[in-house]
Specification:
Chain lengths: 206, 517
């Protein structure tokens, strides 16, 4: 089949060119609204001087590394049982501090799972329900073990100082983590990590 | 014909300048009680006004808060605070060269303070104390004066709720430290400091005008008159300020008559002097400005298991902004009138107490201090004035050329066209320079936040909140909440906005929320 040749006037071609440019620009603009994956270790520009994903990851990695090498774990005759306690957040940042302890737990299980046991105290209700169902014969299986007691509690505290001169703001955050003997309350391991961030507001917002 | 061209050009320039933008849509509907329309307009604003997104989130958050839609309100306040705290801002260049309202809205310190505070209150009411704590801390920080840490924030409501949150989290010693700060903040805010701040502001405005040395001297007099009152006696302070105010008023009248000051500057000065003198007069009458001092806050002391019901009321209509000064380059705060002064709370028909002021939002708004933008806007106002004068001269020259050509029966010369072109360019540039200040603000805030704690037997109770005016007469119908669950060890929180609505929430047993009947 032969395709007929079109003869468009120059003005139409000119208009078509402009239309194509506008459409291309619109597509590019629309493309900018797409969400994209970024490296979680990148600094988060949106959060200002507050705690961001980079801080959470760095702190969890530093703490886990230190804990793996701690004598209390290395010299323990049996694998110690560790329970997570909520981390106290005394900073101005609304963050879920479970993010820190969960990352630490995951890293420790991944790299030192043969030397440490974690118990899921936050799921105790579900465990009790399952045990009762087994005891009542409602589901299969037997209750042949006790619920594990914790040898240590892993917890921490976040504290901060905020300063500003109206133009520049600074946030200093101190992350302190500790392993507490669940019988004697002795602190058998502790480590701190601090971060300071400075940000400047535009002249219109001072 | 040529005169028509000049007129048309001027008209076009005026039209091009357009109206200043503007206060948010939906406010009139909100205050008229048409909540459905207000919500619809706030939603429209949220969709359409990209640079006012945080503002419309706050406005919607208020509606949801008052309607007992707590999770939706919390969602809106979270997003709003994220935008307000971010260092990333859109429209900064446009705001510098055009109108200030082109910039992304991030709120004044008092608005940021209240956004965090409401967010904290919702966290607290829903039992999320680990989130309430940073929210209330952020509320305090949002209102902290810049500089030395020795100067603490004066929003007692932030310290008070931080203290209560520590109590809920089981840290009594930290709670008492925070409560001490709340008392200090209440004391700082009380009368003499308020007056001192107002005078300092007036003095700054006096200095900022194109005034002569006499006015700078008057500014210094006002500041000196205010200084002893901060430490010593508010009565002496008030009397001194009133005398200085009278002197300033007399000097102002002279300057107006002699043409020493232009009308805009004179208007700003008159407003400042009037505001300061009125405040001093109120103090002398013993009315006190504002309420919410340490003795009021003592009633909310959290020590010793203060109670299991915490009633928070939002009273009146909060501050709104409007333009004043040359080309609207200054922002002034207005306040809608209201008659409610406090609320009484009844549990199963028995009165358990009346609310006391823990925050004065209007006070927080007017004490924000100067902004860097104020100087930029002042410069833009001077530039716009200069361009307008230059444009007028060019147009006059064009018309003079035209008249001359007609009288002398000359052929068209280049003089008219050159002057017209110059005039048009200058008029266009003048129209482009927009010195008007941004008057977008969170207008659905109440004027004051009050609170009450009470202890009642655990169980389900009928709770009634009624508002009263200064004469002790009931205003409007009371809000009745039926079957509010109250527990021994966790506070049930009630929030009531005068004349609007409210809710009661208990963090125990699946966060039950009760709305009024």
């Amino acid at each position: 089949m032969r395709i007929p040749k079109l003869h468009l006037p120059a003005s139409s071609l000119h208009f078509a060119g402009i239309a194509a440019a506008v459409m291309a620009w619109s597509l590019l603009a629309l493309g900018c609204t797409r969400s994209v994956y970024v490296n979680p270790d990148e600094p988060d520009v949106l959060r200002g001087t507050g705690i961001d994903s980079q801080d959470v990851r760095t702190v969890a990695q530093e703490m886990s590394r230190s804990l793996v090498g701690a004598r209390v774990l290395a010299d323990a005759p049996e694998r110690p049982v560790v329970a997570l306690l909520p981390v106290k957040n005394e900073t101005r940042d609304r963050i879920d501090t479970n993010l820190l302890t969960l990352q630490m737990r995951d890293l420790l299980i991944q790299h030192a799972g043969d030397r440490i046991i974690f118990v899921a105290r936050d799921r105790l209700g579900d465990v009790y329900a399952e045990r009762e169902a087994k005891l009542a014969g409602e589901v299969s299986g037997t209750v042949d073990r006790m619920i594990s007691g914790a040898d240590f509690f892993l917890t921490g505290t976040l504290k901060s100082i905020h300063t500003t001169d109206g133009r520049t703001s600074a946030d200093y955050v101190y992350y302190s983590f500790e392993l507490i003997d669940a019988v004697s309350t002795e602190v058998v391991w502790a480590m701190g990590y601090d971060v300071k961030k400075v940000g400047r507001r535009g002249v219109l917002y001072r | 014909m040529r005169q028509s061209v000049v007129t048309a050009t001027l008209l076009a320039a005026v039209l091009f300048a357009g109206c200043a933008a503007s206060r948010p849509m939906g406010i009139e509907e909100y205050y008229a009680g048409d909540r459905a329309s207000a919500e619809r307009l706030f939603r429209r604003g949220l969709d359409r006004e990209r640079n006012s997104r945080a503002l419309y989130l706050l406005l919607l958050g208020t509606v949801y808060l008052e309607d007992g839609r707590l999770e939706e309100a919390r969602e809106k306040f979270i997003e709003a605070t994220e935008i307000m705290e971010s260092f990333v801002a859109e429209g900064e260049f446009a705001a510098l060269v055009g109108r200030e309202a082109a910039k992304q809205y991030k709120g004044d310190p008092y608005e940021r303070m209240m956004a965090w505070w409401y967010l904290g209150l919702l966290d607290y009411a829903l039992g999320d104390y680990h989130m309430a704590l940073p929210s209330f801390k952020s509320s305090i920080i949002a209102n902290s004066p810049p500089g030395d840490e020795a100067y603490m924030a004066d929003n007692a409501s932030g310290y008070l709720m931080t203290a209560k949150t520590y109590i809920a989290m089981g840290d009594a010693s930290q709670a008492l430290r925070e409560f001490e700060d709340a008392l200090v903040a209440g004391a700082i805010r009380k009368d003499s400091m308020t007056l001192f701040n107002a005078i300092s502001r007036a003095a700054r405005e006096l200095k900022a005008t194109r005034a002569d040395g006499h006015f700078v001297q008057l500014a210094a007099d006002l500041t000196i008159a205010a200084a002893p009152g901060v430490v010593y006696d508010s009565e002496d302070l008030s009397a001194g300020v009133m005398r200085a105010g009278e002197a300033a008023g007399a000097r102002l009248a002279e300057a107006r008559e002699s043409g020493e000051l232009d009308e805009d500057d004179a208007e700003v000065l008159a407003e400042s002097i009037h505001a300061v003198s009125t405040m001093a007069a109120r103090l002398l009458r013993g009315a006190g400005v504002p309420k919410g001092g340490a003795e009021d806050l003592e009633a909310l002391h959290p020590a010793g298991g203060s109670g299991n019901i915490f009633v928070v009321t939002g009273i009146g209509s909060g501050p709104y902004k409007y333009n004043t000064g040359a080309y609207g380059r200054l922002v002034a705060f207005g306040r809608r009138p209201y008659s409610q002064r406090y609320a009484r709370v009844f549990v199963n028909g028995r009165q358990v107490g009346r609310t006391v002021t823990i925050e004065d939002i209007y006070y927080q708004a007017v004490n924000r201090g100067p902004r860097a933008m104020d100087s930029i806007l002042a410069g833009k106002a001077v530039l716009k004035g200069g361009l307008e004068v230059a444009a007028a001269i060019a147009f006059e020259s064009a018309l003079a050329d035209d008249d001359r050509e007609r009288l002398e029966d000359e052929e068209d010369s280049d003089g008219f066209l050159d002057n017209m072109f110059t005039g048009m360019m200058l008029a266009l540039m003048a129209a482009l320079v927009r010195p008007e200040a941004d008057v977008r603000s969170w207008e659905t805030l109440p004027d004051r936040i009050q609170a009450l704690t009470a202890e009642v037997e655990p169980g389900e109770h009928d709770i009634e909140v009624a508002f009263y005016n200064a004469a002790g007469l009931r205003v409007g119908a009371p809000l009745r909440f039926r079957g509010v669950p109250v527990h021994a060890d966790r506070e049930t929180v009630l929030y009531v906005r005068s004349g609007v609505g409210g809710w009661a929430a208990s963090p125990v047993n699946g966060r039950s929320v009760v709305t009024p009947e």
